[in-house]
Amino acid sequence: MMQTTFRRLLKLKDLELFKVSDNVYGQGFGKIVALILIVDFKRKSTLSDFPYMIGIDTEAEYGINNYIKAFFIVRDTLETEGIEILEEVAGCFLEGKDNCDWNYDVIKLNSADFENVIRTENAIKYCNEFISKQTSEFDLTKIETSKFQFLSQD
Q1: What is the SS3 assignment for 65-81?
Q2: Sorting pLDDT into bands at 50, 70 and 90, what band is 54?
Q3: Region for residue 59 given its phi and psi (left: phi exceeds 0; alpha: psi -120 to 50; beta: otherwise)
Q4: Side by side, which strands form the sheet with 2-12?
């Protein structure tokens, strides 16, 4: 029997990072299939957050009070079904929040890069580099190692 397991690597007030694995027969080991990074930008959503809506909606019609984005960091070989499962998981965390828009991006890495990124310390470093391109509000490198013994690292 195949199960999917989630291990939270990082929890901050506005950001969470999970490692997703196929857990074979409940033995606690399996192939890591993705990292899910969820970021609460705590700002109004804009049409540019949803580029596929340009031409359908206008900026004046757009904008809900809060915007959250999920990033799925995966091997470039992950099939569409795997992405759909990650979307469903993110939806379990994010659907039903009043006055909140959310969406996701898929970041595909070749196998060698993915294997390097999924090591916990590398995952946090990679996510820090990646998220700093999105916003300057987070610096994951400043989290003290001793804080990882707690439920939340802020």
Answers
A1: CEEEEEEEEEECCCCHH
A2: confident
A3: alpha
A4: 2-12, 15-24, 32-40, 66-75, 100-109
Burial of 98 from C-beta contacts in 10 A (0-12 / 13-18 / 19+): exposed
Taking the CA atoms of 56, 58, 59 and 64 in sequence, report the sign of the dihedral they define.
Answer: negative
The owner of tokens 């690597």 is: 9
Hunting for tokens 């795997």 — which residue is that? 82
Do 47 and 23 touch, CB atoms closer than 8 A?
no
With tokens 């939806």, the residue in question is 91
If you search the block for the tokens 């984005």, which residue do you land on?
69
CA distance 42 to 110: 32
Q: 30 with 20: CB under 8 angstroms?
A: no
CA nearest to 105, candidates 133, 138, 140: 133
Give the pLDDT confidence of 18-28 residue by residue, as tens digits: 999 886 555 55
